[in-house]
Specification:
OB fold (Dihydrolipoamide Acetyltransferase, E2P), 4 helices, alpha+beta
Length: 153
């Protein structure tokens, strides 16, 4: 009986684990862009409300609008675009000291909003060509909708 008890104690002692010390490195769990795109397409013409964690790889400006993209090529079918309303640009400059298209490159962000499928029409000499493709946009109408997760970069 003593041998069984001793064996049981040793087995149970061997099953204990220790937790490693927490890492100081920020671990970010990114949203799956293909799932965002699929959900937005499936709910079209409506969008899908949510909080999305994205890595911004590229940015651009067309007219007064600023676009932050998860792929280097904004036309890439895997890209999700964060569309920033022009009225917010001065607020971003005031907060971050740079325009959104300069500041957000290579940053991880959390964006709350509606991911929506947007039809993009091709034009030829300023006239519609009849050809189009779709992008998935998350519109930012309030500066509080977007937050940088990795300020140190």
């Amino acid at each position: 009986m003593k041998i069984v008890l001793l064996s049981l104690v040793l087995v149970l002692a061997g099953c204990t684990t220790t937790q490693p010390a927490p890492s100081k490195e920020l671990v970010i769990s990114y949203s799956n862009t293909m799932e965002i795109i699929k959900s937005a397409a499936g709910s079209a013409p409506d969008g899908v409300e949510g909080e999305y964690v994205l890595k911004i790889k590229a940015a651009g400006k067309q007219g007064p609008f600023v676009y932050l993209n998860t792929e280097f090529d904004y036309r890439d079918q895997r890209s999700v675009t964060v569309a920033i309303h022009p009225s917010l640009v001065p607020l971003f400059v005031e907060k971050y000291g740079a325009t959104p298209q300069e500041y957000f490159i290579n940053k991880s962000v959390s964006v709350f909003g509606q991911a929506k499928r947007i039809r993009i029409n091709f034009g030829l000499q300023g006239k519609p060509s009849g050809k189009y493709y779709y992008q998935t946009h998350i519109r930012v109408m309030d500066i509080a909708q977007i937050k940088v997760l990795d300020e140190h970069t």
